Amino acid sequence: MRRARSFVRAVHLWLGLVVGALFALLGLTGAALVFYIEIDGALHPAASAPVPGAGPGWSSPVWDHALKTARSRWPDPHGSWSFEATGQGGPIPARYYPPADHAGHSHHDLRETVWFSADGGRVLRAEPWGEYAMSWLYELHANLKADALGRQIAGWSGFAVILLLASGIVAWWPRGGWRKALAFKRRAVPLRRLHDVHKLAGLSSAIPLALLAMTGALLAMPGVRAVLLAPAAVPDPRSHRASGTQVPVAAALAAAHRALPEARLSFIDVLGAGDGVFRMRVQVPGDPHRRFPGSFVFVDQYSARVLAIHDIRTAGGGTMVSAWVRGLHDGSAGGTVGRILAIVAGLAPAALLLTGLLHWRRRRAARARPATITDNATGRLS
What we know:
With about 375 residues, the chain is α+β, with helices and mostly antiparallel strands.
């Protein structure tokens, strides 16, 4: 039993040394991103000033105005747009996806974030994704600024972190009374107090950290998520022809709203010329994530006919569980309280890394010092 516990402690130590810094980095960047929309707005007040009243919804003409403004500034007919329906008055956030270039870049690599005025008539701000502060931080958190390889590293490190947490709990598991095992010994030597701080910080944050690590791994690796949760595939319909006059956004929205009248509009995706479709991302009752819900309505861009609906309520249990992954990871499923708890949990890995390293170094230093022997006859130290 003693040998097994020593082995688990060694596993915990070396896992902490290997993935601890990465765990702390992901925790700190994740904590900063919990309110990244609000922080970005504070950094760019001219493009985020609120306007009285609600934002444009299902029947607003503003979407067509914004699309016209967008295409006058970015005229490539093959470029795609994604407009966000925030539900709040003020600038309209959007993303522009240019066609893939000939150097191997996808349109997602080159996307640009754009903010339109509340009436859709002006571009207030336009910046390449990944080149302004909060998007740079987002990419660092999501893929370590290393694209697909970085996503794999970040994803698999999530499973390593779960093993790190589990090994810490096993190594700590009391053989005697729980009260003694959970106590903080204020009068103990500094090395013991540091151990207690690390122990109590790890125990109190283990469950939320395991949740963050698991959901982060599933977000980073959709293939693993597909195997573990088996969510229903999102349809990928095509318009019935590849050329013609695109219907107004308002007509496509009206058709989508008739198909899912109880849904709240979240994003309007307008694909470029060809056989692409309008894709409306919507939040249906029971979906925990307001900004990135999991349901979609697909509309033919030339006839305004609904081609497919992906409703998480009827897509199976794996799809519903998958819909909770992002909301649990960023804390938004718990509202403002959940987001604050996500920040606190995100700060915990840095604290665990610091206390763990200090305890390890001081313990090594203590072991390296020569043994102090007490002279039984004189009581003096020699």
